[in-house]
Amino acid sequence: MVQTGNVTEFILLGLSPNPEIQRVCSELFLFLYMAIVLGNSLIVLTVSFSKSLGSPMYFFLSHFSFVEICYSSTTSPKLIADLPDEKKSISLEGCITQVFFIHFFGGIEMFLLTIMAYDRYLAICKPLHYVTIMNYWVCGLLVGTAWLAGFLHSSAQILLLAHLPFCGPNVIDHYFCDVLPLLELACTDTFFTGLLIVANGGSLSVISFIILLSSYSVILFHLRGHSKEGRRKALSTCASHITVVILFFGPCVFIYLRPNTTCPMDKMVAVFYTVITPLLNPIIYCLRNAEVKNAMRKLWVRTLKEREARRE
C-alpha cells in the first residue's frame, strides 16, 4: 500500500503552459493516436487473417503491434483529454496505476524485441533446425514469458514506490506519471530507492541490448560465407527489426544511463517513445517488408470482394 502522506492527487503541468500550443497539440496528438491504433491494428489483422504470414516472425510482430497500442494507450488518451484543460490532475491511485502499466507494456516490448532477434538468429544461422525449434508451442511459451517478465518488472517498480510518503508539493512537471518525477516529490530520502529503480530498469535494458547485439553480431559473422543475394535477402529481413530496436533503446539509454533526476528534455524523449515510436512501427514494417504489403493488399481485395458478394 502506498503511503500517501497528505497528497491524494497530483497536478500535471503538461507539455506547455501556452494555451494555443496546447490546443494545436490536442488536435495533433489525437490524429497521431488514431494513426497508432489504426496502423498497428492493421498489422495485427493482416497477420491474423493472412496464411502467407504464418511464420513465427510475423506471429511475434502481431503481438508486438498489439502491445504498442496498449503502451501508447496508457498515456495518450489522458494527454489528449488534459491538453484543453487549465488544471490537469490525476489521483494518487491513478498515478500509480499509470506507472504500473507504462512499465508493464514497456517491459513486454523489450522482451518481445529480444525474442524477435533470437528468432532471426535461428532462421538465418540454424535454418535446418528452425522449424523444429520454433514450433507453435514454443512461440506461445516465449510470448507468455514476455508478458510474465513484463509483469514482474513492473511489479518490482511499484513495490519500490509503495513505501514512499507524499506530503507535498504535488506538482509533476510532466504530462504523465513516471517513477523519476514521483521520487522527486516523495518527502523522504529516495537515493537508495532511486538507485534500485534505475538498476531494475537499466539492467533489463542493458541485458536485452547485449542479447540483441550478440544475436546480430553472430548473424553478420554467419553471413560472410553466403552469396551476395543471400546476404541481401537475410539482411532485408533484419533491417526493420534493427530500426525498431534503435528507436526503442535510444530513449531507454537516455532515461536510465544518467543521474537519477529529471531534466527538461524528458518530455520530448517521452513523446518520442510513447507516440512517435508506436506510430513508426507499422510504417517501418510495411514499407520495408514486401510480404506484409502483399498480404495487406490481398486482404483488402478479399474484403472488397466479400462486401460486393453480400450486396448481390
Fold and architecture overview:
By secondary structure, this protein is mainly α. The chain has a single domain, classed as Rhodopsin 7-helix transmembrane proteins (Rhopdopsin 7-helix transmembrane proteins). The chain has 11 helices and 3 strands. The chain has a 3-stranded mixed β-sheet. Helix 1 (19-49) packs antiparallel against helix 3 (76-82), helix 1 packs parallel to helix 10 and helix 9 runs antiparallel to helix 10. The radius of gyration is 22 Å and the shape is globular. One of its GO terms (molecular function) is olfactory receptor activity. It is found in: Cell membrane; Membrane. It comes from Phascolarctos cinereus.
Task: Summarize the SSE layout with pairings.
Blueprint: E1 9-12, H1 19-49, H2 56-73, H3 76-82, E2 89-91, H4 92-125, H5 127-133, H6 136-161, E3 171-172, H7 179-185, H8 191-222, H9 228-256, H10 266-287, H11 290-311
Parallel strand pairs: 1-3
Antiparallel strand pairs: 1-2
Helix pairs in contact: 1-2, 1-3, 1-10, 1-11, 2-4, 2-10, 4-5, 4-6, 4-8, 4-9, 6-8, 8-9, 9-10
